[in-house]
Amino acid sequence: MVRRIVVALGGNAILTDDPTAQAQEIALETTAEQLLPLIKDNDVEMVVTHGNGPQVGNLLLQQLEANSEKNPAMPLDTAVAMTQGQIGFWMSQAFTRALIKNQMERVPVISVVTRTVVDAKDPAFDKPTKPIGPFYDEAGKDDMLKQYPDWVFVEDSGRGYRRVVPSPKPTRIVEAEALKPLISSSVLVTVSGGGGIPVVEAEDGYVGVEAVIDKDFSAARVADLVEADDLLILTAVDNVFINFNKPDQKKLEEVTVAEMEGYIAEGQFAAGSMLPKVEAALDFVKKTGRPATITSLENLEDFLKHDSGTKILP
Q: In this protein, which residues make up the domain named Aspartate/glutamate/uridylate kinase (predicted)?
């Protein structure tokens, strides 16, 4: 029986310390090699989503540096579209090379530019939370605020300050129905890059909005809409922990929705890092009754052999 898995890649799978295109392409080639075992036995249909927080923030800065009457800077929704195409191209290249290297040329690869519908009244528009772009020290942050006083910055996990923008919850993926025949044809599909281009519904179609959607919540929505059997959220650690970095820390393996909701109520997961991944996984499990796993790229082999990682069950 063929199993359909939606894989959500963390930012560490694309951008390391070097923001050049070449470095990000090399990082994705490594990522593609690590993901291929999922599909090598022809028993898994894989759909891949990814974030774009660093890339879209960097692109906006480039846009603003060149902003002029004759060459105006693009708005945030358009920048999301640009990075979705950019990273989608890199991912298609990386998967194609990895497939050829592993004698799996039979698997076609496609990257689809997708729009994600959000609610125009989502309270997230009034409370920016999504970090984008580079890190700044305090002096750098103050300098940016002098140039752009309406920007909002937050301290990010002890690594410095980052700009944050609205991150409304996704309600649906416009192109979801068009994706199903591609996936069923054993095409390796990359979709909903950077959470998808944020749009709201209008009488004559859709209108782009200034936001960046969390890629894990978007992945949960994609997984639901394409009827995936599993949602696999990849991050920097093999398991989710409670009492993290404390003497009594404990890794979570198989946990229920009710247990995870209890840990959230205790404040076990950091708002800017593990919490949205856990919440996205819970969203998928509660809507579908199917499992979601949070683990690392490096743990994929063990996930395949032993179902390891933190697996959330109904």
A: 4-296
